[in-house]
Design brief:
Number of domains: 1
Structural class: alpha/beta
CATH class: Alpha Beta
Helix content: 25-40%
Number of helices: 6
CATH architecture: 3-Layer(aba) Sandwich
Radius of gyration: 15 Å
C-alpha cells in the first residue's frame, strides 16, 4: 500500500506491507543515506522488509525528508531521527496492539537503533549494515540498551568493515545476535535476498 504519513517537515512518502490478520509486530524500516541515493526502494531495504512481512509483520518503509515525494530537505541526520520517530508514531496508531520493532539499513539502521533504543514502546532493534565506524553517528543509546538486538552484516562491507562491526557488537549488552552474509558488500549486491532470509530466520521464532 502506497501512502503518505505526517512528518515534522511535511508529508512523508511511505509503503506499507500488512498481513491478512493481526500482525505479530509492527515494524518501521529506515533506508540508507539520502545523499548517497538511498531510498525506501533500495534493494536491501525492499528485501529486508519483505523478509519481515513473510513472518507476519506489518512493515512500514518510508522516504526520509527530501527523498522521493517526501517533503522537506536533508538535515544531516537530526531531522531524519525525527522523521523516524514520526513513522513509529504512525504505525503505533495503526496497530496499537502489536509489538513495535525498529529496523533499518545503513544510515537507516543508525536512525532505527538510536530512535528505537530511546523509545520505550519499541521492544526489538534491527540493524542491517549499521555505520558503526563513522564518527558522525553516535550509537550511545544503542550501546546502553538491554532490548533484543539483531544484526545482519556483509562479510566484505567496504564502508562499515566487519572488523568494526564485531568490535561494536562486543560492546553491546545482551541479548544480541549477528548474522554475517558471506561475500556480501555494503549494499549486498547480488545477495539482497539473503538479507530478507536472514531477518526472517533471526526473528521468525522470536517471542
Amino acid at each position: 500500500m502506497h501512502l503518505e504519513i505526517p512528518g515534522p517537515a511535511g508529508r512523508l512518502e511511505a509503503l506499507l506491507d500488512e498481513p491478512a490478520g493481526a500482525p505479530r509486530a509492527a515494524v518501521v524500516f529506515g533506508h540508507p543515506d539520502p545523499t548517497q541515493r538511498g531510498t525506501m526502494h533500495t534493494k536491501a531495504v525492499f528485501q529486508g522488509a519483505k523478509g519481515l512481512a513473510r513472518i507476519g509483520c506489518a512493515v512500514l518503509r518510508f522516504n526520509f525528508r527530501g527523498v522521493g515525494s517526501s517533503e522537506g530537505q536533508f538535515d544531516s541526520g537530526r531531522g531524519e531521527l525525527d522523521d523516524y520517530q514520526a513513522a513509529l508514531d504512525w504505525i503505533t496508531t495503526r496497530h496499537p496492539g502489536a509489538a513495535l520493532w525498529a529496523a533499518g539499513f545503513s544510515f537507516g539502521a543508525w536512525a532505527a537503533l538510536e530512535t528505537g533504543a530511546a523509545d520505550p514502546r519499541v521492544s526489538v532493534l534491527i540493524g542491517v549494515a549499521p555505520p558503526v565506524n563513522r564518527d558522525k553517528y553516535s550509537f550511545a543509546a544503542t550501546l546502553e540498551s538491554t532490548k533484543p538486538k539483531f544484526f545482519v552484516h556483509g562479510e566484505l562491507d567496504e564502508l562499515s568493515p566487519l572488523k568494526a562491526m564485531w568490535a561494536f557488537y562486543a560492546k553491546l549488552k545482551e541479548p544480541k545476535e549477528l548474522v554475517v552474509i558471506d561475500g556480501a558488500s555494503h549494499l549486498f549486491e547480488g545477495k539482497t535476498e539473503e538479507v530478507g532470509e536472514a531477518l526472517a530466520d533471526l526473528l521468525g521464532d522470536f517471542e
